[in-house]
Structure formats: C-alpha cells, structure tokens
Write a structure and sequence with these properties.
Layout (H helix, E strand, L loop, with lengths): L3 E9 L5 H11 L3 E12 L4 E6 L2 H12 L6 E4 L5 H13 L5 E3 L17 H8 L5 E2 L3 H8 L7 H12 L6 E4 L7 E8 L2 E8 L9 H14 L4 H17 L32
Parallel strand pairs: 1-2, 1-4, 4-5, 5-6
Antiparallel strand pairs: 2-3, 7-8, 8-9
Helix pairs in contact: 1-7, 2-3, 3-4, 5-6, 7-8
C-alpha cells in the first residue's frame, strides 16, 4: 500500500516552509502527500508581509474531503494561526481517528514574524496538544508554551519537555537548533524513554523551513510504519543533509530554504547541474 501523509498547515508563497516544504519532504522521502491549507502567507526569504486566514469551516471541509477518501498513515500539523481553526483541526483528528499526529507548534517565523495569535496559544494547549503523538517545539516555542524562560542547556531542555508531557502530549521532541555549541541536539522525552539526537551544527544562513521539514519528515517515517524513535532518527539525518546542501541553492535575498532534494538534483543523471 502506498504510504500517505497529510500536512495541515499554512502556505508559504516563497516555497521554503509550510505546506510547500512539507510536500517536498514527503516526496523526497517516498511518501504521497496531501494537504489541508489553514492560512495563506505573503512570504519570501526576507519575511512575512501578510497573512490571510482560511475560514475554519473550510478547513474542516478540506479535512473531511481528504480523510474520507485517502488511507492516511500520519498527519503533520504546522501553522494554525487562530483559535477557531485549532478547534476544527482537533475535532477533525478525533472524527477521523488519527493517532500518528506530529504537531509542530509554529508560533513565529524564522524572520521574527508572528504566525500564531497570542490568544490562540491556550486553545492549542487545551485541545490539540493532548491529541498529538509527538510535539516538536524549538526552544523559544517550548518556553512560550510553558510561559517560562528559554532553556539554556540540555538539562533545562529535558525538564521543559517533561513539563510539556504534562499538557497531554504522548511524547515531546524539544529541538536545540536555536542553542549554541558544536552540536545541534534534539531530545525526545516520553514517559518511558529519553533519546538524544545530535548532529554537527552547520554554519549557514539558509535554514528557512527547517522546523517544518523535520516535523514532516517524522510524519513521513510514521506513515511508512517506522516507530517514533526510528522516524525521528531518519528525519534528523535527512534535515541535517538538507541544511548541509542548502548553500548549493541560490534562492532569494534573505534566509534561503534548505535543500529538500539534495539527494536527487545533482546525482548522476539528474536534471540540474551544480553551480560552478
């Protein structure tokens, strides 16, 4: 059976994050991708200039159209900017009995532009986090969810992840990409297991869409039948390689995207030649 994953997220008109990054990731990892669009953003590598929210009722209609027809193996959830949309998504997950849910609590774009209304954070905590198999906050997002300061070391990261478990998530992957040091460390914390995922930190400004790509790569692994830890390990390796290859691309004047198709475009027989 064909592995299918669905992304429920916002559109990035610049193509580097959001729905576009998710679908690229699914495709690169051999998974068929479907989508439910929650918002449209006027966005490029420099920043977000406008957001147009999709009405909650229409978000629900997309959910029912997709899940009534496709055998979905996993769901990735990204940008949900308004409380009514969060409520509709939570109800849709319940209605269609989805368990492999990867929730990336997107709050602020890499450019610093806010993507989640402050008043919607409580709704996210209350109705959606308890429905997630795993949530994947970065350090600022974890701090915002807990209304505390940003973790400064792995011990504090683990402590915050354990507090997030108390909100109802079955597991938490707290991401250390915003930290400093030679390694980029993510910690998977679940009630019965703690796993450390580390990779060499890569010096590049082209990291737009990294969080979206990681969470959708995890969903792709789950859709293919991998365990959560296996899916995270595969996703971490894929994202690290995509970041390492990002400078092969020349996209925009700001923070460019990671290279989702790093393993395809420049292989022998590929259709695109590397820059000289």
């Amino acid at each position: 059976m064909t592995a299918i994953a669905v992304t429920i997220a916002g559109s990035d008109s610049g193509g580097g994050a959001g729905i576009q990054a998710d679908l690229k990731t699914f495709s690169a990892l051999g998974v068929y991708g479907a989508s439910v669009i929650t918002a449209l953003t006027a966005q490029n590598t420099i920043g977000v200039s406008a957001i147009h929210d999709v009405p909650a009722q229409f978000v629900g209609a997309q959910i029912d159209a997709v899940f009534s027809d496709l055998e979905v193996g996993a769901v990735k959830i990204g940008m949900l900017s308004q409380a009514p949309v969060i409520e509709v998504v939570a109800a849709g997950l319940e209605r269609w009995r989805q368990v492999n849910v990867v929730l990336d609590p997107v709050m602020v774009a890499a450019s610093g532009d806010r993507l989640l209304a402050p008043q919607a954070i409580a709704t996210l905590r209350r109705v959606l986090i308890p429905r997630a198999l795993v949530i994947t906050p970065n350090l600022p997002e974890a701090a915002a969810l807990l209304e505390t300061s940003i973790a400064s070391n792995e011990s504090e990261m683990r402590a915050q992840a354990e507090r997030l478990l108390g909100l109802g998530a079955k597991a938490v992957l707290i991401k250390g990409g915003h930290a400093e040091g030679a390694e980029s460390v993510d910690l998977l914390v679940a009630p019965t297991a703690h796993v450390r995922f580390a990779a060499q930190r890569i010096d590049t400004r082209n990291s737009h869409g990294t969080g979206c790509t990681l969470s959708s790569a995890i969903a792709a692994g789950l859709a293919k039948g991998q365990s959560l830890a296996e899916a995270i390990g595969t996703a971490k390796a894929y994202v690290t390689a995509a970041i390492a290859a990002a400078d092969q691309l020349n996209i925009g004047a700001g923070a460019g995207p990671v290279h989702h198709f790093h393993d395809w475009w420049w292989r022998p027989g590929g259709t695109v030649e590397a820059d000289e």
